[in-house]
């Protein structure tokens, strides 16, 4: 087994996740089988209980693991299926060691950070690295490990020590360390400054790790004299110094690495030169170039609770990108804080209220993503009502589906107090209820999580056709509440169709309005399985409906893959929060002149 460790220095948010994903992709393009591990030094057992404002979205895996959003990046770039164990946290490591101590596994010894915690980290890495994640038998060839945080963080120290021991134990030819650092350009003089990188590498070496390759983040390509200086002071070969500079879209990063022969440097360190081929990135290159040529826009109103941080909806954004390209449209996101659509905002801040509604009414499609808590719920209900009454393409995900059902109950069934028991425990018409198997005392890991099967109840419906007329589909879930099965017949009698249900037939998974151009709600999260070249069926349906192409897609059938249908070129973001546009740039990631989304 070969290991590639990616660390970061100077500042956080440099794009280690994109770098690690791009490294994995280019190694896969060389014919190697690749897996990934993300190390998060926080004490939480997993990301499940963390606020999206604190840490971005919680990404859900097939096995129900609630993990860091970087694992979503790995899955999208490498088209693999990871497990919850591919995300290591301090909480998981300490819990496993404490459990062993309680069982008496340490035979009465004093349990310490060294060797017990560090050994546990190394054992975890070795165990997970051999798990196949690409659907084939046998262990992968290379494991790319990303260490979260920045070198020097106190919470990372046990992992740094463990990885230092690990590199020595597996041997020089089996371990490659890539350090991502910053080379800032001072606007006053326009000079690329190497001192931050020098200090970062010095700190890394003082902790027992020596970088083989430096990936230097900068706005422009490094000058040769700057590379020479970094090489001299950091003791890294000039050929092993890579520039990660601003590019037009995030899908060009693997191409940037290839063009600078980063793969050759990695293969040299890992003694794989005779095994791997030249990277086959023809299709990826075509995608990146195609994305730069898109100009005709499609506007999607994102009505949510966490619109102040785009990372909170990262997988949704990526799924929209994947769906927009085969429709030959440039995706434009209008961020709308759901609470700004409510009457209370009209009384308190009329300008915010008017701006929010102006954006909503100017959208080609409306998307209400998942979320928790009652803030902004009434605004989301108003958005669903506007989409239903004005025949605007609508997609509701998780909570978005539930509020669509609540809106239908209020407007069509006349149940004015209809609500979810999450928001009104005493409602007389509980359209959405707490699931019987859920826990009301423990939050972490107690939801309905992971891949679950949905069976189509109606063959002649949009969702079934978009999924290729299959009898069932497996999608990932993350929810505590569900549509009240006792009210389903009442809804269907009034024209709302529950076209997808679970195996019991009592849990509603997909809801549609048959006489609407595209009004779909799903209890699951289809964004988590969207891939470059393989857009999520329901996101594709939303964009196709918004651009007048849905009927064509439904008649011809939706292909399982789209050859040149991926990228983020020109993905414009008009971030709307508290009544004003805060940002207008490309959602191309930390490597572009965008708004800083790093995936």
Automatic annotation (TrEMBL):
Pathway(s) = Pyrimidine metabolism; CTP biosynthesis via de novo pathway; CTP from UDP: step 2/2
NCBIfam families membership: PRK05380.1, PyrG
Q: What is this protein called?
A: CTP synthase
Q: Which residues form the signal peptide?
A: none
What does it catalyze? Answer: UTP + L-glutamine + ATP + H2O = CTP + L-glutamate + ADP + phosphate + 2 H(+)
InterPro entries referenced in this protein's UniProt entry, alphabetically: Class_I_gatase-like (IPR029062), CTP_synthase (IPR004468), CTP_synthase_N (IPR017456), GATASE (IPR017926), GATase1_CTP_Synthase (IPR033828), P-loop_NTPase (IPR027417)
SUPFAM superfamilies in the cross-refs: Class I glutamine amidotransferase-like, P-loop containing nucleoside triphosphate hydrolases
